[in-house]
């Protein structure tokens, strides 16, 4: 199958004439006190009996004058927005949008920047509903252009620019770790996080959660071996907002997002000059510069550019830079009649240390590294281990030049174009096209068996225990422990072309969307896995030579898997959604999506256990090679997904919502290589309650997730692949909210209580049905009190996060204990532009085991005196200064 794209095209003729939505001459009694503009617009909406939607950044720092009397809707809106630089537009008969006025000479009063995390001194603090984003427009998982978070029929979490700035996340996974229902393992480093949604079992990564940028994936697949989308999508100053939809409509608008969608929304080019900049340093050698700039170029054209540069020694310092690189993004927009078109390009060239489970000893509640050093700082990587390179067998797949210091190294270009257009008839069009081309190399140490004494290691191989350090030639006592871990090297080549186009018809009662998605994509894989190195167990270990067991570089075994694979795919989908306002208080949502894809691959058959020198006494140079013969694989699959939901407003401040979704994730490249051709099917039902009071805003959601015949795969320490299948069922409860008892104190909170359980488990000699789903806790609690001081210019917070116990394996024989993680931060705004911020991660230096070792835990009977597990990073401090400017 050759790549093909020309079959994606749209020729649209619109000749629909429906009378434009005007403003009724009916008048309304208006009584609004002086207050922040965002709050005033919420009050005005209730008094005018309309829906008013806007982004919080548009009104931040602006005040509304008192308004008393009897007004038409148009006159009230004009009076409210006079002098603010904003205008209103009727989106339909009962919906009003607030946006920047096109007249650049109309300027609002001086205001803090959009990134200011505290209000200007003397102004009132935002009410919880506003700070929690209840009245902000959400664009993820909805057919409507004007749906707010409060009106949504799904469970949704939102993080705006101030939220992201306060959290100062070290990674994408770290940012979304606060989302209820998501168990996030962010201990692999600044990329390669694992996100488990609502008890869904998986190998890791984002397999069932769609991580997208501006509504469209960077690459059509969300998880493959040694690939996560967070390699390409990072929080930065160009990130305006992040929206996270859990279950619900996520798989209707994004293929395969059966657990949810995480949407990173970038700052659009501004109608007024703006700069957001951040410079940071840390106690582990971080140096960061992150800048976003935007400005108008003319009355029609606007431009934005942003990027970051960073370098870090790493908390688990390997002896060379752990993270280094950067990203640049350019966005160009042009206003057209009743719409906008845009062009953008992003290039990322960044390296991240990949952190794996480390050898530990002692009680798992309070373990230390195997050498007695703090578990949060111990590193398996070192300059000496890096110096080994890769054995000769890696040359077969072109990886002999791999460098462990490159870590996870994406070098990727994405370019795209957007088009949006609206007509008076209520029809709107949004079309988004994205092209991706680039490479990711992945060099990491993967943990093998637990350490053993040198004497035992030598005896198992039938050689004398005569060890010496390779770097110095110094002898090594065989009574001490040794470990044998692998340098795995992978090179992946990505290419994709995608388009998502959607027509929406908005009437007084309906928001009906019809869309089509198409993707043409390919990937090439070159792997050299295994490559086991013998070292001591010290922090930043040193390589050992053992005559008859290692080669001169310290390898005890060359590759246990060399792979050469090339894949191509074509996928397309048709989807439809309707949001039907049955009455003023009741709205029903319906969605359908039909996905179809065809995958083809050419994969090396592999030649096991090749003795490269022909000498059976030299066991270290045994390698499994890719060979020259190949097998062809193919899969053609499809699925029809559907969803139905409702939102019922009990009052203006309280509502009930619910959703049922039946969907599936189709097989991907790794699946067909491993012979897995079943669809990952899921049913998700949820029922929720939400409030937006003066002192409290919250979502409370009960859910049930059922999976049918889910496959999951592990590559074990000996290179063998284990594929198992199971049904799972999770019943849970999610809570997320914000409480503000007084103006200067707010408390964000979140909780997840769930019971993830295996059903009909197959693939092993032991029936694990009834066991808890591995790696996922039953309870997760988060509490973040925040206090304002210095007349609102300062803010200090503590974050308490408790995670319940988990099991590292399907057999539930290896228990990982619960732990409490404490973070803290303080910030102070010197004026409307300059803010200083100090964040302390893991203040109490909690060890916290987030996962065991998937390569050795499968089938294990229990935990021993020595064990491998991945612990939290140790305590770290990050100091940053932010500069924010937005011209009036």
Q: How is the biggest beta sheet arranged?
A: 22 strands, antiparallel, barrel
Q: Which percent range describes the beta-strand content?
A: over 45%
Class by SSE composition = mainly beta
User: How many H/I helical runs?
Assistant: 11
Shape by Cα distribution: globular
Mean pLDDT: 88
Distance between the termini: 54 Å
Describe the fold and architecture.
- With 888 residues, the chain is mainly β.
- Helices cover 7% and strands 50% of the residues.
- It is built from 11 helices and 49 strands.
- The chain has a 22-stranded antiparallel barrel. A 4-stranded mixed β-sheet has the order 8-12-13-11.
- It starts with 26 loop residues before the first strand and ends with a strand.
- The model is unreliable at 1-24 and 102-124 (pLDDT under 50).
């Amino acid at each position: 199958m050759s790549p093909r794209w020309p079959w994606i095209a749209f020729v649209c003729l619109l000749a629909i004439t429906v009378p434009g939505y005007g403003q009724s001459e009916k008048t309304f009694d208006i009584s609004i006190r002086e207050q922040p503009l965002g709050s005033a617009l919420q009050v005005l909406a209730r008094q005018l009996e309309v829906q008013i939607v806007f982004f919080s950044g548009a009104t931040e720092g602006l005040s509304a004058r008192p308004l008393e009397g009897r007004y038409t809707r148009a006159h009230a809106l004009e009076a409210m927005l006079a002098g603010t630089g904003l205008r209103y537009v009727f989106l339909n008969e009962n919906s009003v949008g607030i946006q920047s006025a096109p007249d650049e000479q109309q300027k609002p009063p001086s205001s803090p920047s959009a990134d200011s995390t505290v209000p200007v001194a003397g102004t009132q603090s935002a009410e919880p509903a506003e700070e929690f984003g209840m009245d902000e427009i959400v664009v993820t998982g909805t057919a409507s252009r004007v749906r707010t978070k409060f009106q949504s029929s799904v469970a949704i979490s939102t993080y705006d620019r101030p939220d992201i700035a306060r959290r100062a996340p070290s990674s994408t996974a770290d940012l979304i770790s606060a989302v209820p229902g998501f168990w996030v393992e962010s201990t692999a480093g600044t990329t390669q996080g694992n996100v488990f949604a609502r008890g869904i079992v998986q190998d890791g990564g984002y397999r069932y959660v769609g991580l997208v940028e501006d509504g469209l994936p960077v690459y059509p697949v969300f998880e493959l071996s040694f690939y996560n989308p967070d390699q390409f999508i990072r929080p930065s100053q160009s990130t305006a907002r992040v929206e996270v939809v859990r279950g619900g409509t996520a798989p209707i608008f994004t293929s395969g997002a059966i657990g949810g969608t995480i949407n990173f929304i970038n700052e659009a080019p501004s109608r007024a000059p703006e700069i957001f900049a951040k410079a940071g340093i840390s106690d582990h050698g971080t140096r960061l510069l992150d800048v976003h700039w935007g400005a108008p170029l003319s009355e029609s054209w606007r431009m934005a550019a942003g990027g970051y540069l960073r370098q870090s020694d790493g908390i688990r310092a390997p002896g060379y830079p752990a993270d280094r690189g950067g990203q640049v993004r350019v966005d160009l927009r042009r206003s057209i009649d009743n719409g906008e078109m845009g062009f953008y390009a992003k290039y990322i060239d960044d390296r991240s240390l990949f952190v794996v489970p480390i050898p530990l000893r002692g009680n798992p509640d309070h373990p230390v590294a195997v050498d007695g050093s703090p578990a949060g700082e111990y590193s398996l990587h070192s300059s000496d281990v890096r110096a080994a390179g890769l054995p000769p067998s890696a040359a077969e797949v072109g990886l002999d030049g791999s460098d462990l210091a490159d870590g996870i190294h994406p070098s990727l270009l994405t370019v795209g174009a957007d088009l949006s257009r609206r007509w008076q008839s209520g029809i709107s069009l949004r079309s988004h096209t994205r092209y991706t081309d680039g490479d990711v190399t992945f060099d990491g140490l993967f943990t093998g068996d637990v350490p053993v004494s040198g004497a035992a290691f030598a005896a198992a191989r039938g050689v004398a225990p005569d060890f010496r350090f390779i770097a110095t030639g110094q002898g090594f006592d065989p009574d001490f422990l040794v470990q044998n871990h692998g340098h795995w090297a992978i090179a992946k080549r990505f290419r994709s072309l995608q388009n998502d186009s959607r027509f929406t018809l908005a009437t007084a009662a309906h928001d009906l969307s019809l869309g089509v998605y198409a993707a043409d994509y390919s990937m090439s894989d070159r792997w050299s896995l295994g490559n086991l190195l013998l070292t001591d167990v010290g922090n930043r270990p040193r390589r050992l030579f053992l005559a008859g067991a290692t080669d001169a570089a310290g390898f005890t075994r060359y590759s246990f898997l060399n792979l050469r694979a090339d894949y191509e795919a074509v996928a397309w989908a048709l989807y439809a959604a309707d949001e039907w306002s049955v009455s003023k208080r009741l709205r029903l949502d319906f969605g359908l999506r039909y996905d179809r894809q065809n995958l083809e691959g050419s994969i090396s058959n592999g030649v096991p256990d090749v003795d490269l020198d022909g000498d059976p006494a030299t066991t270290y140079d045994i390698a499994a090679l890719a060979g020259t013969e190949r097998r062809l694989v193919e899969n053609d699959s499809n699925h029809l997904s559907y969803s139905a939901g409702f939102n019922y407003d009990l009052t203006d401040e309280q509502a009930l919502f619910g959703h049922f979704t039946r969907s599936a994730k189709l097989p991907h490249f790794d699946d067909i290589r491993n012979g897995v051709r079943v669809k990952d099917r899921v049913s998700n039902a949820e029922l929720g309650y939400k409030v937006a009071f003066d002192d409290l805003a919250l979502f409370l959601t009960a859910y049930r997730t059922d999976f049918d015949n889910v496959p999951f795969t592990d590559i074990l320490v000996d290179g063998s692949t284990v594929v198992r299948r199971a049904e799972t069922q999770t019943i849970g409860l999610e809570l997320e909210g914000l409480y503000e008892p007084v103006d200067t104190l707010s408390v964000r909170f979140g909780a997840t209580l769930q019971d993830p359980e295996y059903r009909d488990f197959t693939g092993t000699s032991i029936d694990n049905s009834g066991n808890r789903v591995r790696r996922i806790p039953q309870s997760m609690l988060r509490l973040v009190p925040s206090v304002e001081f210095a007349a609102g210019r300062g803010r200090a917070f503590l974050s308490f996060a408790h995670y319940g116990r988990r099991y590292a394996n399907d057999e539930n024989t290896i228990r990982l204990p619960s732990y409490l993680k404490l973070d803290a931060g303080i910030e102070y705004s010197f004026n409307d532009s300059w803010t200083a911020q100090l964040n302390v991660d893991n203040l109490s230096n909690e060890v916290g085991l987030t996962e065991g070792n998937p390569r050795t835990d499968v089938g294990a009977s229990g935990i021993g005196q020595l064990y491998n597990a991945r612990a939290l990073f140790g305590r770290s401090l990050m100091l940053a200064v932010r500069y924010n400017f937005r011209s009036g």
